[in-house]
Design brief:
The chain has 252 residues and is an alpha/beta fold. The protein has one domain: TIM Barrel. Helices cover 36% and strands 17% of the residues. An eight-stranded parallel β-barrel has the order 1-2-3-4-5-6-7-8, surrounded by four helices. It is globular, with a radius of gyration of 17 Å. The mean pLDDT is 95. 2-phosphoglycolic acid binds next to strand 8.
């Protein structure tokens, strides 16, 4: 499986002009040996979509949203629907990021969002991960529950458009990533958990990404053993140089 690199800009950068400069700085000199998805703030998506059409080197980069509402239209103040994302070129959406969970998103709400996104043919980047690592294996039951509820009622055929992002909350934005061994162990557990839901080993069906303080120096180690097959990158995606550094490190 060729790696997938997802840039999660979160609520950055501050202005549209800076967002355009940032996206332009991702321009690739040749076709990458990894998939790249950029998830800007939704209000910047139309401009990124336009820039991607215009600027050489951005065409192979896919776009994604950072969240959606659980419904497709109606009286949902502040929500964005899958079709609103798709209209501006997004093919992916992050769901269940820990920063959204921290604002009150429950596993049940995340389940509704996953089903709404998959029904609209978006590719879902479902984030799971424990808040702290207390070295008693508790992370496994947290992650099992997050996955089981998030995927409740999702048909097997729709899981083709599903990627699970293992993001231990304690590693996000802290400069303190999980070790490659820790991430691979949880990655295997995620694959086994999905297998118990869909009834077969999904190594080639469902991709597992790692996220949490990924950079060009540490990225490559996570890919050993073919369990983790890419990254969700926050801080280091806010400079083209750093993101392309990670791309280079994982594809050389
Ligand atoms: P980070 O964020 O790379 O800044 O740790 C990752 C994420 O929250 O997706």
């Amino acid at each position: 499986m060729s790696p997938l690199l997802v840039a999660n800009w979160k609520m950055n950068p501050r202005t549209l002009a800076r967002a355009q400069t940032l996206f332009a700085s991702y321009a690739l000199k040749k076709k990458p040996r990894a998939g790249i998805v950029v998830c800007p703030p939704a209000s910047f998506l139309p401009a990124m979509h336009a820039l991607r059409k215009k600027k050489i080197g951005l065409q192979t980069i896919a776009l994604g949203g950072q969240n959606i509402g659980p419904a497709t239209e109606g009286a949902f103040t502040g929500n964005i629907s899958p079709s609103m994302l798709k209209e501006f070129g997004a093919g992916y959406v992050i769901i269940g990021h820990s920063e959204c969970r921290a604002q009150g998103e429950t596993n049940e709400l995340i389940n509704q969002k996953v089903k709404t996104a998959l029904a609209a043919n978006l590719h879902v980047l479902l984030c799971v991960g424990e808040i702290e690592r207390v070295h008693d294996g508790a992370e496994f039951s947290v992650i099992r529950e997050q996955i089981a509820i998030a995927l409740d009622g999702v048909t097997k055929s729709r899981m083709k458009r599903l990627t699970i992002c293992y993001e231990p909350v304690w590693a996000i934005g802290t400069g303190n990533p999980a070790s490659a061994a820790e991430a691979i162990e949880v990655g295997l557990f995620i694959l086994r958990t999905i297998a118990s839901v869909i009834g077969k080993h999904p190594r080639n069906a469902v991709r597992v990404l790692y996220g949490g303080s990924v950079n060009a120096e540490n990225a490559r180690d996570f890919l050993e053993h073919d369990v983790i097959s890419g990254f969700l990158v926050g801080g280091e995606s806010l400079s083209g140089r750093s993101l392309l550094g990670i791309l280079h490190a994982i594809t050389k």
